[in-house]
Amino acid sequence: MAAINLPRPPLPFPGVRLNWWIVWGVAVLGIGGTLPVLQNSATTSRGFEIRDLQAEQAQLRTDISLLEGDVARLTSLERVERRANELGMVQSAEAPLFVTVDTPGPSPARIPSEYLPSPEATSLVADPWWRAVLSWLSIGD
Fold first, then answer.
1. Which ranges of the chain have pLDDT less than 70?
2. pTM of the full structure
3. 98 vs 35, 85, 88, 95, 121, CA distance in Å?
4. How far apart, in whole angstroms, are the C-alpha atoms of residue 139 and residue 134?
5. Are 134 and 128 contacting, i.e. CB atoms less than 8 angstroms apart?
6. DSSP strands (E only) in the chain
């Protein structure tokens, strides 16, 4: 393979040598000067994103409170009674009718946790070895 040696282009200022330490120093200072600007820009962008997310969160909270109001209105006793009358249901003066179901319920029970029996507290501390020896000898407790 043959190499063609082309002449180097002359520097813009004849007689001036290029000092690479100065070039690297200028490059480092230039990069160091742009880093705070980039950091400030990223922080500003993040601030706008946070503000948008907070506005969305406020809107969702408003929607939730409106839905809670709808649920409270729809489950009021007067509304349920009025709707039952519209459907033709009437209160019976007779004795109530109780229905028993012989089929077992689902396992595990789908009951809210406050109605389930609380689990028994178990001690994580083991009995000392000497209690086992004393109980084996029938001397202790």
1. 1-3, 8-16, 93, 109, 121-124, 138-141
2. 0.41
3. 77, 22, 21, 9, 38
4. 5
5. no
6. none
